[in-house]
Amino acid sequence: METENGAGDRGGTRPDNGTGTARGAWLVYLLAGFALVVVYYLTPVRADGFPVRVVLYSLLSGSAAVAVGAGAARARRGDRLPWALIAVSQATYFTADAVFYVSHYTFGITAFPSWADVFYLGHYLPAALGLLLLIRRRAPGRDLPGLLDAGTLAVVAAMLSWVYLIGPQSRRDAPVLVELASVGYPVMDLVLLTVALGLLLGAGARPKAFFLLVGWLALILTADTIYVAQQVTGTYAAGNYLDAIWLTGNLLLGASALHPTMGRVSERAQVHEGPLNPIRIALLSGVALLAPAVLLAQYFSGALRDIPVVAGACALLFLLTITRLAILVSDQRRLAITDVLTGLHTRRFFEAQLPLEMARARRSGGSVAVLIVDVDHFKSINDRYGHPAGDGVLVEIAARLRSTVRGGEVLVRYGGEEFALIVPNAELDSLAVLADRLREQVASAPIVVTQQRWVAVTVSIGTARYPTHGTSPAELVAIADRALYSAKAAGRDRVVVASDSNPEVPEEQERPEPHGTDYLHLVADAVDDLLDDHGHSRAVARWARMLAHEFGYDSDLVRRTELAGRLHDVGKILLPRSVLVKPGRLDEDEWELVRKHPEHGFRMTSLLPGHLGVAHVIRQHHERWDGRGYPDRMAGRDIRVEARIVAVCDSWAAMRSQRPYQAALSADQAREEIRAARGTQFDPDVADLFLRLHDRGAIADLHLVHRGPS
Questions:
Q1: Is the model's pLDDT at 18 over the cut of 70?
Q2: Is the pTM of this model over 0.90?
Q3: More confident: 578 or 571
Q4: What is the pLDDT of residues 398-433, one digit of tens each?
Q5: What is the pLDDT of residues 515-532, one digit of tens each?
Q6: Of 195, 124, 168, 201, which Cα lies nearest the Cα of 309?
Q7: SS (H, E, C) 216-268
Q8: Which residue, 133, 212, 355, 508, has most beta carbons within 10 Å?
Q9: Do residues 548 and 530 lie in contact, with contact meaning Cβ atoms separated by under 8 Å?
Q10: Percent of the chain with pLDDT strictly greater than 90
């Protein structure tokens, strides 16, 4: 069902998030500012007694305060305070510049410290507070990895600052005010640097305005550090190249506030942690090695000092690194069992948790219920509105299901458009009520798929309970899955609880040919008729039986392997004919459909009593030895041996037959393909046995596939 909200489609560009400034204003401001910086250095200090340089410098410094103030006024209400604090900081900085240059050039006062230094030091605090508020708005919670990375860089910066700037200043026999001012600059720079690193390494959007803002911080901190070093060595002179760095930094700050993307700087990030990419790893590793490098430098220079400071820095870096690694390991574990799209647990977690819950129930005499939830007609949503809209529907359904889950219950995304729920201590009489509550919650309101459209979405649910319906995890899931299929066959948007009137036949007691397999044999033949006319599934069944017998397996496994070979492709009957017989290459959407046929076959076969083992073989026959197969990416001996046997036989039959999408290979070519894929696609032992049988003529003599050119 689809509904429109009555609003017509409206064109337009992305909004500026409250920044209504002309798009080119920031660039005009920046270019004009750079031109004035050049004029500043070409102009004498005075022209006919007028302090030209003082006016130009103050004009440039003050323009940044005006630009940031204008940006703060245009920002959204919730984003104004950070920019307002930065504007206050820049206004204080402008005041300091005016006092300093008027004192220096007009009155010849060159004493250090002066009243200008009070304003210079005073501008750090509002700047740091404004940046902290920006960081808080950008991060969706505590961005602990970003804080740890920023802390690592800040510890090293603090150590270097103490060893080469603060320490030498504190050891000088200078007046108290001189020492306080000399130490105050690197200390406040460290505070600002720490906050700047938190902004740079933390989560959040990175529009052009963000990089302009970071450029301001980088230039100001660089110039301040050089200024303190020049004060220590007594080489500082007003009007040197540092003025260009300070002024350029001010211009970048003003441009960031005028840039159209200024409003996006405070956008909330979608993830908690900053990315730990190779560049970031290399940077953090190199920085951490600076502490021992400083010790080596002092050792070879013969001037060992500040050892406690360097040792403390090494200890802090060690603790920060260990904490970062612990968080990384925790994140990897969480990602391994968390579905990226919905935030629910994954099928892997479900398959690990269900046996634990069943074991707990077995010990306590309790019960466990499994509910399988499938979204009705989900493919039509993807086809009509696109996969992003389909993803949005799945996210909303996950949220609605999560809202009904109680403590102790485990909700997972089971795969594709399927969800599953584990319910400990579920009463048999309450299963239908519990499942119906989930169904009604999903259908409670339409789900938005575009700005103008929403769809009514329903789900079908199948459920089963231990020990009433099944006694093993695989059996319980298969029975719940069978109940789900019954719900969909009955018209969808309904709940079916597994019936205990026809208990499952244990796998070890599977009957040779119960009533109902005839239909699946006809389905297998119908699929073969679409693809070729030489009995593909019958050939696979005979070869599979032969291999299982050669391996010396018991009669039950041999029979199960043969039957799985006969029915391995029945799930393809549910694929669109246009995809199944397409002569050219399949696109990704078509491949996605094809990859589901083992699951379709599993469900169809598991509906037959006593065929659960055969169904699992069918589900696994496209798994690969190296774990890169589908649908469950199983690997090695985790794959049932029957499925490993069917996989080789199926591939040989496909290669040796003429298909709509490929020409038949010769026997030698097919042998080479099998040999090349042993140990990657195929079980090496199965591949080797198949080739030995072919050498003996046991395979070639069947004549059930096209004979390619020899």
A1: no
A2: no
A3: 571
A4: 999 999 998 889 999 998 899 999 999 988 888 889
A5: 467 778 888 888 887 776
A6: 168
A7: HHHHHHHHHHHHHHHHHHCCCCCCCCHHHHHHHHHHHHHHHHHCCCHHHHHCC
A8: 212
A9: no
A10: 26
Task: Report how far residue 535's alpha carbon sits from residue 682's, in angstroms, rounded to the nearest whole number.
Answer: 23
- Partner residues linked to 375 by β-bridges: 459
And the tokens for 86? 């930065």
Local structure of 296: helix, strand or coil: helix
Structure tokens that stand for 566 in this block:
């006969």
The DSSP-derived string for 633-677 is ---GGGS-HHHHHHHHHHHHHHHTS-BTTBPPPPHHHHHHHHHHH
CA distances from 569 to 141, 595, 646 (A): 49, 12, 11
Q: How far apart are CA 111 and CA 95, in angstroms?
A: 18
**CB-based burial, 480-511: b 16+ in 10 Å, e otherwise:** bbbbbbbbbeeeebbbbbbeeeeebeebeebe
Q: Give CA–CA dist 618/621, Å, rounded.
A: 5
Contacts of 388 (CB under 8 A, 6+ apart): none
For residue 294, what is the DSSP state? H
Instruction: State how far the Cα of 189 lies from the Cα of 161, in Å rounded to an integer.
Output: 9
DSSP code per residue over 317-341: HHHHHHHHHHHHHHHHHHHHTB-TT
Mean pLDDT is lowest, of 114-118, 583-587, 656-660, for: 656-660
Determine the residue type at 362: R
Q: Are 540 and 653 a contacting pair, CB within 8 Å?
A: yes
Closest CA to 567 of 540, 532, 529: 540
Give the SS3 label for residue 561.
helix
> Dihedrals φ, ψ of 700, to 5°?
-65, -30
57-99 pLDDT tens trace = 888 888 999 999 998 888 877 788 989 999 999 899 888 888 8
Type of residue at 449: V
Q: Pairing between strand 459-466 and 495-497?
A: parallel
Position 183 scores a pLDDT of 67
d(CA 581, CA 636): 31
* Closest of 94, 112, 55, 105 to residue 239, by C-alpha: 105
Contact indicator for 623, 617 with CB cutoff of 8 Å: no
- Nearest-10 Cα torsion for 558, 559, 560, 561: 50
> In sequence order, what DSSP letters do the residues of 445-493 get, joined into one string?
S-EE-SSSEEE---EEEEEEEETTT-SSHHHHHHHHHHHHHHHHHTTSS
pLDDT band, residue 20 (cuts 50/70/90): very low
Is the pLDDT at 692 greater than 80? The verdict is: yes
Task: Name the one residue in this structure whose structure tokens are 């302009």.
Answer: 212
Distance between CA 247 and CA 236 in Å, rounded?
A: 17
The confidence score (pLDDT) of residue 686 equals 95
SS3 content of the chain, % helix, strand, coil (to 5): 65, 5, 30
User: Six-digit token pair at 579?
Assistant: 């995809």
**DSSP 8-state code for residue 508:** G
* SS3 label, residue 615: helix
Residue 241 burial class via C-beta count within 10 angstroms: exposed 0-12, middle 13-18, buried 19 and up: exposed
pLDDT at 485: 84
